Amino acid sequence: MPWFAPARLGSRALQLVAQALGVVLLLFLILESGLAGDPAERALGDRPSLQRLGALRVELGFLRSFREEAVDLQLEGPRARWEARGGSGKSLVLSDHTGERARLALRGLTLEAACAALEAFRFESGHQLQARLRDPALAALPASGLLDALHGTRLALDTRRGTAAPWAEARPGWARFLHQTGELLRFDFGRSLDGQPIGRELSSRVGRSLALAVPGFVFSTLLAVLLALQSVRHPYGRIARLSRRASLLVLAVSGVSWILLWRGLLASQLGWFPLLAWDPPGVLALLLPVLIWVFLATWPDFELYRRVLEDSARAPHVLGARARGLPDASVWRRHVLRPAAGLWITQLALALPFLVLGSVLLEQVFVVPGLGDYLVSAARNADAAVLRATTFLFALLYLVLQALGDWSAARFDPRLRAPEDSGGRA
Amino acid sequence: MSRSARVARAALIGYLVLAAAAAVGLVGADWRTGNAEVEHLAPGASAWLGTDHLGRDVAAMTARATWTAVLLGGAAAAGAVLLGTMLGLLAGWRAGGWDRFILWCSASISSIPGILWILVVATALGPSLSTLIVAVILVGWVGVYRLVRSEARRLRAHGYVEASLAAGAPTRRVILQQLLPQMTAIMSVQFGLLFVGTIQAEAALSFLGLMAADVPSWGRMIAEAWSWDDLGHGRWWRLTAASLALGGLALAVLTLSRSTGSRRP
Q1: Is this prediction's pTM over 0.90?
Q2: Beta carbons within 8 Å of B5's beta carbon, 6+ residues apart
Q3: Considering CB atoms only, which of B113, B121, B200 is closest to A394?
Q4: What ipTM did this prediction achieve?
């Protein structure tokens, strides 16, 4: 069956869609489901106002609506500490720095009655609280959630009750998941927390990351292939021995340490290169980060290519070809490099999405405003929308390239073809 | 065992002893104690690895960070290896719905680049050591699972396994007594790789400002060396101590795990 047969393409496409949906589901579970805490609180930090919290929850899709005016209780009183006891919405304990002073039961009260009770509430010291409900239409709502309004920190994400709080209508988890999936599949990534369109930001930054990543990737791959070839052809030679030791050493020490070491030595101490790579951008400014990239990326590739070549060189058909007296150059070209090229192509295809992300550390050190910098800022600000969009995009790219890589590898190495594909030709 | 593996084993034992001593407070207990009069002191008799910007002893901090690295790398790698082995044995033994479901999960997870995974989990759970452990377990089990699954499939077809089953041995005993011991080489190699990956990820996350600031770690030392431009001012000792300590532990673990892998029957 040819590779472009509709049945095979359809099956591969279905696989791809299933895996892409798996990625969306994982991202939803981790970032947005509430399993790992409240995303809105995470983004706004400690003790945000309820208005900001509610507005962000609407923006993130947790709430369908949020009536800001409903919770604008004007509370004035002593410097008291407000504590919730006995579960949300059941009672309100008012206390100051000396400890507990009084308890106001909220169970069964309407929002209006709770406000009236608060207004009338007096401490022993004579301080008075003032609580006003601005929206009379909400007067009949139950007072559960009033504690949250007073604290201004928590709005329960309990979707089982249908509403998170009297003043906000929650969107169920499955509806949020479907909504987000639809947006991602339409490549509508929305806006980041600072209001910038994520899609536009990603496209404007990808070029800067690639300016660093592409030369680094090309040179490191070439160097790794050359060293791997030399190591396999002459396994006891000096280059093979040195390469293996260098590989172990470079891989053992943290990449951050190598970056700081080379920058400190070549840019700070010797002054051979500029300290920053994007101020202004230029070939000389990018040279040091590219050299460091080559230094760091060559060795993992070298290990991989060396193993692939060793496996190819030891295969029974290669030994057979040698035994039949085929010239060495021909054995290498036809029986070692050609099948190995298939696996190399797969690896190259799979490396492409990681290419842009590989520069995260280099972009931080050399202050390049690329994708890595964008991602780190998003992680620091707990901007889930940016991380979700970027992760989905890279996962999709990886899955598509994986399918293309598998296909192209099978063109080079007949052993990788499905049985029906190689039937009659092997 | 080769000479390099013996050296690596001795070095690893040294690291573990140092970590245990740091855990019970025999060494590095005063890593928080600073002295403004001796800040940025070069290595010498009073502080043989020098001091940092707050006058804290770099040697004490390096020793205390050894415990953090061993705890972090050990917990994350052990969690990922255990989960991957359990799921791999389950899927390798029982083909069908479970196998397909776990395969789908693993394919979805492995299509996300590791650094993005860690950033996503760090965003969801906040910066802490436990966040990194969870992130590594969530990502790391996939590689172990795939290897164990294919090995379990291969071994299941062997005569001695079929003979045990035919003799009436319970499935659990066959898996635990006949399959699991065959997986130790895979498990130890994967443990080593995950251990090294975790302590290096900690260094990267600390550098990016995504780890807890109150935990003594080599990553934190490297990050502080960067923040205070140590190398720019010729103060090489803090970065060097943390990098060499991390590199030495990683080298020992990698060498030992490679040696274990090459002894695989």
Answers
A1: no
A2: B255, B256, B259
A3: B113
A4: 0.85
